Fold this sequence. Notes:
The chain has helices spanning 2-8, 23-33, 53-59, 101-117, 130-136, and strands at 45-50, 83-90, 121-125, 143-152, 158-163, 172-174, 177-183. It is of the alpha+beta class. It has 2 domains: 2-156, 3-Layer(aba) Sandwich (NADH Oxidase), CATH 3.40.109.10; 157-192, putative fmn-dependent nitroreductase like fold (Single Sheet). Helix 2 (23-33) crosses helix 4. The model has no long low-confidence stretch (mean pLDDT 97). Residues 10-11, 13, 64-66, 123-127, 158, 171, 180 line the site of flavin mononucleotide.
Amino acid sequence: xxxxxxxxxxxxxxxxxxxxxGRETLLDLVDCARYTxxxxxLQPFQYFISCTPETNETIFPLTAWARLLPNYDGPAEGHxxxxxxxxxxxxxxxPNTDRFRTDVGIVSQTIMLAATEKGLGGCMIGNFDKEKMxxxxxxxxxxxxxxxxxxxxxxxxxxxLDLEKGGDSKYFRKDGRHFVPKRKLEDIxxxx
Length: 192
Ligand SMILES: Cc1cc2nc3c(=O)[nH]c(=O)nc-3n(C[C@H](O)[C@H](O)[C@H](O)COP(=O)(O)O)c2cc1C
């Protein structure tokens, strides 16, 4: 079952703009992240949640989508994410926030999997200007926005493909559908 959720949990970039996500839903997603492992158990994160159209539209213009696709602008009007969780790293807990990059991944993937289980989907967005995002969200000085988790009810289809050894791993769009090549099991296993 977990494997099915992992496979369903793709990076979606088009959403039903009319499907609101409630604050309680976002709180429950963060509650899942709260139980994840954490290096030295420092738990250096706070989470900015957004589910109102106003705050969502403050965040959206600061996010960049699918940089591998030059002719694609990301979610079209009416298909924007309807919620966000911005994972913020607390410099008061560790001044070198790079140290927590693995932890960012762990909490973020946990949130995305929990969202998938709820019938939602989304995309991790690392391509944004941290200073502009911190200013737009009026974050206190000690918090650095590390990763944006854009969420919504996906309304696009994504197909996973087997990537031939040495082949091109670039994702692509064809006839409005999105394809994502993944390396084969036999090509990534080492040892016995
Ligand atoms: C740390 C991280 C940052 C990412 N940043 C972006 C981003 O800024 N914009 C975007 O459109 N996708 C972003 N993605 C999504 C990747 O492009 C996506 O994971 C990849 O194309 C594979 O597709 P899949 O998630 O469906 O397997 C990011 C993914 C990760 C893990």
